[in-house]
User: Fold these one by one.
Assistant:
Number 1:
Amino acid sequence: MPTSDSKTESAQLLQGASGLLRLAEIASQSGAQRIAQEAKSIGDRVTEGLFYVACVGQFKRGKSTLLDALVGERILPTGVVPVTTVPTVIRFGAQRRARVRLQTGAWTEVALNAIEQYVSEEHNPQNRKGVAGVEVFVPAPLLEAGMCLVDTPGLGSVFAANTETTREFIPHIDAALVVFGADPPLSGDELGLVAEVAGHVADLVFVLNKSDRTTDAERSAAVGFSRRMLEERLGRAIGPIFQVSALEQVEQRGPVRDWPGLAQALEGLATHSGRLTMAAAQRGMGRLCEQLLNVLEEERQALLRPLEESERRMATLRQTIAAAERSLADLGHLFTAEQQRLSQRFGKRRDAFLEGVRPMARQELAAGLQSQLRGGGPSFRRAALRTAQQIAQRHILPWLESEQVQAEDAFRSTAQRFIELANDFLRRMAGAGLPGLAAIPETASLEEGFRTESRFYFYDFITIARPASPFRYLADVALGVVRGYDTIGADAFQFLELLLETNANRVQSDLEERVRESRRRLEAEIRALLREMTAVAEHALEHARTTQAAGSAAVEAALERLGSVEGELRELRKVA
């Protein structure tokens, strides 16, 4: 039998869902479609009694494997570069299935093994398929009480809570599973991500994953360092940091480590599902009410002003937005210059590396070829190419590791310059004196913005098991007969050069792609804000034009209606 507390909680959830759906209705009537969609989305989730635990952390921290381990089976694709705007929600379902929600709002059922086609950068570059989210249903006991695990590979943006991803999912997050590692340890970008999420939710569970890849001393140092950094950044104690290996758990091998404690912590969240869901409803209600009140104020002022003045203001807004577009183009040119400067700087380091490593690598290959048995031509080619691979790998991989650190530092420096340029643009926009422009943040911060994950695609050192073609095989047989090993050796030297050049160029390509993607996101976010402000102002102007044409009585009635709706929103905000 339900207790009085559970009845009260259920009534509060019902009230919250009802308020959000009413807010969505008002927003739709006012032309604020983004607010309407977001309010409806939160209201629907509250009605279903779902609470969301977002798994956050940088790329390659093992988040997908961790979520697989929590639900007890392999569900999510691992080792893929994610599409940052496509979150994946794992929720309870009696039958295993998956569905994709498009940006149009339509749902499409897909096979479980086809998820990667929608959430990976390889199969859905820059989200060209227009995917808004993916839901996976599994019969996992952990999820039965309403918990949903959310894989959010790209939480955060240049403007906190202003990208499409954060607009849709930060209000839905009720708790966060923060995943980091010991090698490398917690980064500044990850700290910024945790701080952003902590500004919206109180319940954070911290996990140091891949514990099987480090020594006890390394893990202890990483945990101590991470705890100090997190508590300093958040200004409070953070509780336990669970040291686990998600891969060991999935493969059912190795020690359990802190896995029981992690499971208990998540089960503890499940016992407070009502509180967490209600908190999400209240957060969403308060924020969206505030935004909608600003929209209604614009509508009120349009009714009170002479129509000619409103039309002049609309013309000014269009001019300001046109100027903003030009500013974005200027910003792009400046950033391109920074990108080119970075490319040149990296190119010099790459050339210096290649100049220094080529003589050593060639000497090692020459010595290796001398020691190879001179048997048949095909077997000599296989041995020669394997030797070239081993030498290249021995020289390149340590350099790639150090160069990644250099690239990260260079990227951060460029990002800081871009942020300064963007902030100057934002200050000029905020000084335009137009009501709608107040929604634009005054500043953008580096840690909130440039979290584009590294995509260092290093060349795979694929073992050559056989010659590339029958013709090559026959040619090698002939070379072996005539003792033409120098020809095969020359091919091995060319292969070594290919390995060195390819790997050196990959790092530069990755860095440039990160810079381009961050620039694209910033520009897209600003343009989305400008489009929304234009839509709200145009709706207010059109409503004022129609109402004023109907006479003063119609204007008075419209103002009275606005007053009533504003009063209703203020009451809803009080509940939040």
Number 2:
Amino acid sequence: MLLLLNALVLANLPITVTAHPITIEVVSIYTEPEERAHWDVLKAAFESEYSDIDLILSPVEMDDIFDEVMERHLLGTDSDIIFMHTMWLPKFANYKDPIIAPAPSDVALDVEANFVSAAKEAAKYKGIVYGIPTEFNSHALVYNHKIIKDKIDSLPTGDDKTFLAGVLTKLNVTKVPLTYVELKRAARLLTVWKEGKIYSPGFMPYIDGNEEKRYEFMNLLWSNNGEFLDLSGDPAIGTKPFGTPEALFNSPAGLEVMMLFNDLSTKTSANPSYDPDILPDIYWTAWYEETVAMVIIPGWFTYIRGAMGARFKNIGVAPVPVGPQPGATTASVTYAWMMAVTEKSATEGRADAAWTFLRWLNQPRSADYIKPTPALPIGQIPKGGPCSIMGDWLITDSTMPSRIDDQLYGKVSVGGVPTTLMRDDFWFGGFMDQATLYGRPDKAFQKSEEVQDKIGFMFESVASFGAAPASTLASAEGEVNDILPIPGDIDMNGDVGTGDAILLILDYGAVPISPKWNRGRSDVNDDNKVDIADASIIMYNWPL
């Protein structure tokens, strides 16, 4: 009886439940010790406010993160949040096996309203916002005006001296882009030889990773009135049937780009330029020793400020040189990175917590919220300024944020001390100008990564190893055409057939009821609708 009474009493006592926090994993690209230290501070600050959410930070090297995401997805171990290049968006958002999920409506509205145009468009696929843009980059011709001036002063009166003086005026004063001819002549005059080897290049092609090799090529191709790819399949642009993506860089404009690097890379004293085996390390030593006169690079190279210290003032930012094709004007390739939440996180009920963290990172309260410490100079935005926590970090890490207010109100850190507003800094401001005046977004598509590898190999073959420009260009275009998406292959089985027609019929007229057409399925031509144009593409590519 006593046991029974005790049991009844215990059964009616209130039960104390201990809530277990939701754990979300963030795969980031910040692997350096000072970067990890910063994100550890952010983790502690977030968890102190949101005690029901625990963060796991998993840093992965930038060059490895694509393979890491793909491998983990294959194994079913996707993280909750990933940092990703926007060129991977079509592959990661595809309806067949999505890796990432669409952003909530409030996040999508924030991206549409508050981010630079190129970055917010890059964060969308078929009209849907999938994440929050982070780092934003444009390209420019970066030059050392002290090297050029010293060379001018060392030359006797004559044509070379007058020519280089005109080049320096173009770069420093008028900001008019150089021509290919001017770039080649200046590179040869500025190259320094020691003991039969190049010690200081007049111009150095940026050869590091297929992404930057492709952008090096695309910057000069677009600045020569050339085209890279036709993804729309417009027969007025290319030569393929309607709706068929096509490579267009094997053209007079593309050949002139390859000939430019062929001329620059010939390793003789009469025609000096780039040799990757004998030049100093472009990442640090070359900038510290001031042994590079000109190079085309993206804005994230601002870390050379630390390498050069006070001598960073010797650096200038100018437009990408223009080629000889009629109508050629300078262009600057723009691209972005973004943060996205995975489909696995959404399926398993952690997406709300993941988006809570991303909203927190992008709120305009960095100075008031993340306090500076003597060891780690964070929280550099003026108190009360509308810069976000993420923007504050990006500027501290020497990269340009995509959020407009971050660009306008963020302060540049020099040696851990906040100085001028980002927009007034000659480096950041210069790259912002290139994006605003000449920016051209890099269009993402399903096979972006595979195409990039082909272009990187093509470019390095000519620029570094002296391969024949014309045949290398033609071979690369053929290889790219072979791997571009098959137009009308909706079910992605490698051909166009009855299955594709059935999917199109199911989606035709079902918008917005059908949840998948605008995630990579029947919207064949990427115009954010399913209509007769999509049917035409299937008809053109149906086996006869």
